Fold this sequence. Notes:
Blueprint: H1 3-25, H2 29-80, H3 86-148, H4 150-167, H5 172-184, E1 190-194, E2 197-198, H6 207-214, E3 227-229
Parallel strand pairs: 1-3
Antiparallel strand pairs: 1-2
Amino acid sequence: MSDVDKLWELQTVMTALNEREKQMAVKPESFAEVDREYQGASEEMTRLQEQLETLSRERRKVDGELSDQQELLKKYQGTLMQVKNQQQYAAAWKEIDATRKHVKELEESVLKNMTEADGLQSQLDERQDGHNELQGRYDAAHAEWQSSLGDLRKEAEKLRAKATQIEGTIPPRLLSEFQKIYKQRQQVAVARVASDTCSACRNRVRPQVAQQLKRGELVHCEGCHRILHLGSPTS
């Protein structure tokens, strides 16, 4: 078998392997329906958890500021006893009044935060109960789908082993060239020539090129640059 024939055989095996992998990736509707429901529920729970975390961060920030303002209020109240004239007394009371208002605003903010957090936590708890049941249905449907893939997995494993075996018979330089084209050309590195035409890009194969192919030479398509394989009526 020529190197070109080996490359064609490798391409054939890789194409079959890709088909099996695509089949394994397609979710059956019985699982896809549960999967959609599961993903939607998971996203909703994630959204609620993120909102709770945001409120928690805001609460910690406000708590810190509230603590600072309460300490400041104590300080102002302490200085009130040390004032020496009416002007200082009025200024101290002005600071105390402003700080008390700020403390009240912060306390209201904390209360609002706690109320919102309680509401979100209640929603999350309700969804968690349903999510546990949904998780069970999802796991069962996923296990059933994976079990149904047994035959396809076996076929894919055989094809991978076959590809590895063929690769071991191809000179490294040619194998490297195959792999490069394979990645660049939609996983088709070798194309058949049918009716003097490249089957991949439909470019016409010149008679001179066809003669090179018949001699078993390595030839690239002048249109898509894939490796050409002449094949046979039964290939």
